[in-house]
C-alpha cells in the first residue's frame, strides 16, 4: 500500500551503532508526537493479549555525512516542515530538560546535527531527501 505521506530519518553515518539506533528511536517518537495520524491500530494476538499500536507506514532511514545532513535540514526548513532533531550534545545529557537546554543554547546554523526526522507529503520528503542513501 502506498501512503500519501512519508516518514524519513536521516542519521549521521559515522556514529556508533548504538548511537544510530538510539537516535532513530528518539526521532520516531518525536514524529509520532507531532503527527499522531501515523499511528496504526493496537495489536492483539490469538490468545487475547493486547499490544501497543505501531507506526502504520514504513520509516525510511537514510545515512548522511555532515554536509548531507545539513543540506537535508536546510531543504526541510525551506519547505516549512516540522523537524525532529537530535544534536551531538544530547549524547551527554540524561533527561529531556537538559536536551531542550542543549538545543536552546545554539543558534540553528550552529546546531551539531546527528539526526533529523521528517514526516510530510511523500513527494516533498522525496525532494528533501534526494541524493541520500538508505542506511545499511
Descriptive account of the structure:
This protein has about 140 residues and is α+β, with helices and mostly antiparallel strands. The chain has one domain: 3-Layer(aba) Sandwich (Bit1), CATH 3.40.1490.10. It is about 35% helix and about 25% strand. It has helices at about 15-35, 65-80, 95-105, 120-130, and strands at about 5-10, 45, 50, 60-65, 85, 115-120, 135. The strands form two sheets. It has a five-stranded mixed beta sheet with strand order 5-6-1-4-7, sandwiched between helices. It has a two-stranded antiparallel ribbon with strand order 2-3. This is DUF2000 domain-containing protein.
Summarize this, please?
The chain has helices at residues 17-34, 66-78, 96-104, 122-128, and strands at residues 5-12, 43-44, 50-51, 59-64, 83-87, 113-121, 133-134. With 136 residues, the protein is an alpha+beta fold.
Amino acid at each position: 500500500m502506498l501512503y500519501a505521506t512519508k516518514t524519513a530519518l536521516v542519521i549521521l553515518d559515522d556514529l556508533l551503532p548504538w548511537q544510530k539506533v538510539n537516535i532513530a528511536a528518539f526521532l520516531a517518537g518525536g514524529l509520532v508526537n507531532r503527527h499522531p495520524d501515523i499511528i496504526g491500530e493496537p495489536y492483539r494476538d490469538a490468545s487475547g493479549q493486547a499490544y501497543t499500536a505501531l507506526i502504520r507506514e514504513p520509516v525510511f532511514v537514510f545515512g548522511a555525512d555532515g554536509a548531507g545532513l545539513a543540506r537535508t535540514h536546510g531543504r526541510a526548513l525551506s519547505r516549512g516542515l516540522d523537524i525532529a532533531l537530535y544534536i551531538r550534545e544530547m549524547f551527554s545529557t540524561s533527561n529531556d530538560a537538559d536536551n531542550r537546554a542543549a538545543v536552546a543554547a545554539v543558534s540553528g546554523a550552529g546546531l551539531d546535527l546527528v539526526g533529523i526526522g521528517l514526516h510530510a507529503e511523500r513527494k516533498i520528503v522525496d525532494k528533501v531527501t534526494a541524493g541520500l542513501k538508505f542506511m545499511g
